[in-house]
Each structure stands twice: as C-alpha cells, then as structure tokens.
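Below is a filled-in request sheet from our internal design queue. Each sheet records the structural input a requester submitted and the sequence that came back. We keep these sheets so that new team members can see what a complete request looks like end to end.

REQUESTER: design group, bay 2
PRIORITY: normal
MODE: inverse folding
CHAIN LENGTH: 205
BACKBONE (tokenized):
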C-alpha cells in the first residue's frame, strides 16, 4: 500500500509517516508540504492509493486544493486532515469528493484503522464531525454550506459562473461544483430552475 501525506508541518508529517509504517508493515508513505508538491508527487509516483491532505496547508485556498487533486487525479482517494474543522468544512469536503475526514488528534491505532477503511473504499468521518447546522436545513434533510449559500445569493442576482468566481475569489470549476450541489439539494435540473426553487422556498434574501 502506498500513501501520500500532504502537510506543511514537517514534524507532524514525519511522525505520521513513522507511525503508519510501523503499525502497517509493507506500507510506503510519501510526504510533501504543499498542494503543488502533491500534484507533482501523484504524477511522478504510480500506485498511490490514498492522499491525506491538510485542510489548512498552503495552496488549499479553502477546498480548492481538494478540487484540484480530484480533477487532476480522479482515480486517487483523498481524505482531509485538520487540527480543527467545522461541520460545514467536513460536509463541503465530502460533497467535493473527499472520502473522509481525519482529525489530527485521532489516536494512532484509530488513525491506522481509519486509513485501512478508506483504502478499502469506505468513508470515515468521526461521529458529529459533519453534523448539520439546524438553521440551514432544507426539505429532505439536506443543508447548504456557507459557500453554497453565497453562490446561491449570486445566482439569485442572475450572475454567471465566471462573475461568481471573480466575486468570491474562486476558480470557475469550483463554482460549477457548488452550483451542481445546489441543484441537487433544491431538486432542480439547472441553475435557472435552482434559482426559481429558492425563491419559491423563501430562500431569497
């Protein structure tokens, strides 16, 4: 098994690598300190099954680093790591294709077990880590992330994806992912119908 840890804290990265390799003999763990380096490592080293990606690492820009890895290497599983993350961050990461969320405070044995589950194709999110906020609930139990709410506000103003990307300092591909999520949660077939549904549900503000 080959893993890639992308974290800008050298000591933590090296400690994680040592622990995983000791607890799981035969596992090779590579380490990099930025999103750019992670993209390069994935292109250079074949057979990487899982990337552990630090949420607050340089180049992440929110979740854009995750989107970049998922776009450039769609066949590689990516899980987020963080010392702290809001439920909104965790839900958004899962919506953008992350296979799980690993708190950096997770005990060593539990971490190795979680990694094994992720490599096997399961998801891993600690209980309560992705709990929805009560005031953001939609019909059917869905909920908006803070960024989806911002994108929806611009949709209701008739803005294009390019205009929304510029206003929120996001990549246009990221905005498209948010719009897709909004359409799914609102039961809409396209952005125009999503805006109409939002108005009907009293979500315009």
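RETURNED SEQUENCE:
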């Amino acid at each position: 098994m080959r893993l890639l840890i992308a974290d800008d804290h050298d000591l933590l990265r090296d400690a994680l690598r040592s622990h995983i390799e000791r607890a799981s003999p035969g596992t090779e763990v590579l380490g990099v300190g930025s999103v750019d380096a992670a993209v390069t490592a994935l292109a250079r080293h074949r057979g990487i099954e899982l990337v552990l990606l630090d949420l607050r690492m340089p180049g992440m820009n929110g979740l854009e680093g995750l989107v970049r890895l998922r776009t450039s290497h769609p066949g590689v599983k990516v899980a987020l790591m963080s010392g702290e993350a809001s439920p909104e961050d965790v839900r958004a990461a899962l919506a953008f294709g992350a296979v799980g969320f690993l708190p950096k405070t997770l005990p060593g044995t539990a971490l190795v077990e979680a990694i094994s589950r992720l490599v096997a194709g399961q998801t891993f999110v600690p209980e309560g880590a992705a709990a929805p906020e009560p005031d953001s609930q939609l019909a059917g139990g869905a909920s908006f992330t803070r960024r989806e709410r911002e994108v929806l506000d611009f949709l209701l103003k008739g803005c294009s994806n390019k205009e929304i990307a510029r206003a929120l300092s996001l990549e246009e591909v990221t905005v498209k992912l948010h719009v897709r999520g909004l359409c799914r949660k609102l039961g809409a077939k396209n952005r125009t119908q999503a805006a109409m549904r939002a108005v009907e549900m009293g979500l315009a503000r």
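SHEET NOTES:
- The two ends are 50 Å apart (CA to CA).
- Residues 133-137 have pLDDT under 50 and may be disordered.
FILED BY: M.R.
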